[in-house]
Amino acid sequence: MKINVVTTIMRVVLGILFLAHGMSKVQMGFGNVAGFFESLGIPGFMAYVVGTIEVVGGIMLIIGLLTRYISIVFIIILLGAIFTAKLSAGLMGNGQMAGYELDIAYIVIALYLAVANTRSWSVDGLLFKKSSTNR
């Protein structure tokens, strides 16, 4: 029971954080974010893809819908951010740009959610009911 509470908190908090990141991209304007992506050598259209995934995926985590799959997608996005934008700044950043320490923490949380039983207090639990012997 206690692990279910902690897992739910982790899922909801990670969802809120990704939703906030996605909404930040929306508020900045995807065109501006696309320009930043292009300055890193990433195709500009990826700003729209990443921003949409962050908003929609954040909501999906908050309600607990397809948690495993969206967690894996978030891991891919985070690894992309580390290797394209943050690796050169170092783990803790360089005074001009944030490092990737927070991305690693998000990856660990998303990895846990990708492999853990996240069906308690979630839409997944309502839609995909299985007996505990099948888990």
UniProtKB/TrEMBL annotation:
The alphabetized UniProt keywords are: Cell membrane, Membrane, Transmembrane, Transmembrane helix
Could you tell me where this protein is found in the cell? Cell membrane
Q: Name one GO cellular component term.
A: plasma membrane
Q: Please indicate which superkingdom the organism of origin belongs to.
A: Bacteria
Instruction: Indicate yes or no for the key word Cell membrane.
Output: yes
Q: Where are the transmembrane segments?
A: 45-66, 73-92, 104-128
Keyword Transmembrane appears in the UniProt entry: yes
Stated membrane topology is: Multi-pass membrane protein
Q: Which family is annotated?
A: Belongs to the DoxX family.
- What name does UniProt use for this protein? Putative oxidoreductase CatD
Species assigned in the record: Paenibacillus nuruki
Taxonomy, top ranks, is:
Bacteria, Bacillati, Bacillota, Bacilli, Bacillales
